[in-house]
Specification:
3% strand; two-stranded antiparallel ribbon
Length: 137
């Protein structure tokens, strides 16, 4: 028997109860919806100030998030070792950011491991995304 694996749309419906949730074929999610998912997983409200601190501080390893993404996530960054350009991280400055849960989780997993030597918790993801959502055009 296969276990039921909820789609992103199902998860959003669970999170938002009777609210109408429209999902495209690609299961796009907005950054605000992604924040709600991470906050629900964490069981606590996100705090932008904690997100900024996590983003700009080294955590016992060589890099912080800002080492590649810059202290201003509204501009292009550059990978610290490969030099590869990185598009802005703040959703208001890059409409593709945090619109695909699988992609967001993949990059959080990789980058948190590089910065902290472990995966980020749902609360840490929520805090960072809450901070990134404070940047407006």
């Amino acid at each position: 028997m296969q276990a039921w694996i909820p789609s992103r749309c199902s998860l959003l419906r669970l999170l938002f109860g009777s609210a109408v949730v429209l999902c495209s074929v690609a299961y796009a999610i907005t950054p605000v919806e992604q924040l709600a998912v991470y906050s629900a997983q964490a069981g606590v409200a996100a705090q932008a100030a904690r997100g900024q601190q996590l983003f700009t501080t080294k955590h016992g390893k060589e890099w912080s998030c800002a080492s590649c993404h810059t202290a201003s996530p509204t501009v292009e960054g550059k990978h610290a070792s490969t030099g590869k350009l990185i598009t802005p991280l703040a959703p208001a400055f890059n409409a593709e950011r945090f619109t695909d849960t699988a992609k967001s989780d993949k990059w959080f997993r990789r980058n948190c491991n590089d910065v902290m030597g472990r995966e980020c918790t749902a609360g840490e993801k929520a805090d960072v995304l809450a901070w990134l959502l404070t940047f407006k055009r």
